[in-house]
Amino acid sequence: MKTTFKFALLAAAPVIAAVALPAIASAQAVSNVAVVDLEEAVSKSNAYNTAISQIKVTYKAQIDAADARAKALTAELQPLAAAYQAAAKAPSAAQNQAALQQQLATLQQREQAANVEVSKLSAPVALARAYVLEQIQMKLEAAVNSAMAKKRINVVLQPQAVIKVLPAADITNDVLAELNVSVPSVSITPPAGWQPGQAGAGQAPAQAQPQGR
Q: What would the pLDDT profile of 101-111 be if each residue is shown by its tens digit?
């Protein structure tokens, strides 16, 4: 068994929600097809990178605390994992399946508890990053539409939907350029009580002031 410990603090790549791209009315005139990597467009946008830099400064204490705790928990869990792996490879392992299963269950429970502990420490960081992403995503569909119109594109596909594409058919940089114009900066401070999925309700994120550029 290979044991890994997943303590994610500030992921580099954003997770992009589905964007409702314009529907094709019929199959006739599907002549201009392009590819766009939405995650790349967002991750390279000025607003996202500026906000992530601000988050690393503003939430440094939380990031450091979560990182230190993650390292301590990893050091605590590694001997337990090594002990289980050694027991599983021992000649008597076949006769000790019940004990091995209990040992594995204990290890997995401790690992889950460790992940929960680190997640709680880094929760403010995760919430700030989610708020940043949601503000940018509110402008993403419009950016795709604008890039399509300028390039006279009829159909846009995600990279994983194609086998091969010529560089000229990739409009990721065009969408990136549109994002940099339409959303030059975002706030890293969610309104009180905000949760992911609430960007369009209450206080509009697009009107929030970015923190310390």
A: 898 999 999 99
